[in-house]
């Protein structure tokens, strides 16, 4: 986490202790963050944040995941539900493969818990795809502006009712 240009490195604590430390920091009005995962679904993150007003906060969450190839294809889904509009949000995915990447499909953002995209889904026009020189590496960036976040939030609310 970067606050006001200063870097803070995260550390791993037991669930209860981490929650207590975060709650104490919030009660004192301090800027703090808490990232939790579900034991049975370790690639599902919940991020809680308390940041003082007029402070720039940047969160850099990195994880690696081994993907299984099915029928010659990999499938990876990222669901975003920030709970509030974020002035500058960006999701960056780096893909490294031992073979050339010949096909890459980035679907429109899902507003539910769907995980399997199909080629019938529309390609995400807001995603930027950059191939490496060898075609064995790809970087996909998605940075929804506030209008796009509002649109997605409205769709999510309609589906939740």
TrEMBL record:
<dbReference type="InterPro" id="IPR013694">
    <property type="entry name" value="VIT"/>
</dbReference>
<protein>
    <submittedName>
        <fullName>Inter-alpha-trypsin inhibitor heavy chain H5-like protein</fullName>
    </submittedName>
</protein>
<dbReference type="InterPro" id="IPR050934">
    <property type="entry name" value="ITIH"/>
</dbReference>
<dbReference type="Pfam" id="PF08487">
    <property type="entry name" value="VIT"/>
</dbReference>
<feature type="domain" description="VIT">
    <location>
        <begin position="1"/>
        <end position="65"/>
    </location>
</feature>
């Amino acid at each position: 986490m970067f606050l006001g240009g200063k870097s803070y490195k995260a550390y791993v604590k037991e669930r209860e202790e981490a929650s207590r430390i975060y709650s104490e920091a919030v009660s004192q009005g301090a800027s703090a963050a808490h990232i939790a995962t579900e034991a049975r679904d370790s690639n599902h993150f919940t991020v809680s944040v308390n940041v003082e007003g007029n402070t720039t906060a940047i969160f850099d969450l990195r994880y690696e995941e081994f993907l299984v190839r099915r029928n010659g294809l990999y499938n990876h889904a990222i669901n975003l539900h920030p709970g509030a509009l974020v002035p500058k949000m960006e999701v960056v995915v780096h893909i490294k493969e031992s073979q050339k990447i010949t096909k890459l499909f980035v679907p429109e953002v899902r507003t539910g818990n769907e995980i399997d995209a199909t080629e019938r889904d529309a390609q995400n026009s807001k995603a930027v795809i950059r191939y490496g020189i060898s075609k064995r590496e790809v970087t996909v960036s998605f940075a929804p502006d506030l209008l796009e976040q509002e649109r997605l939030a409205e769709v999510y609310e309609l589906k939740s009712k």
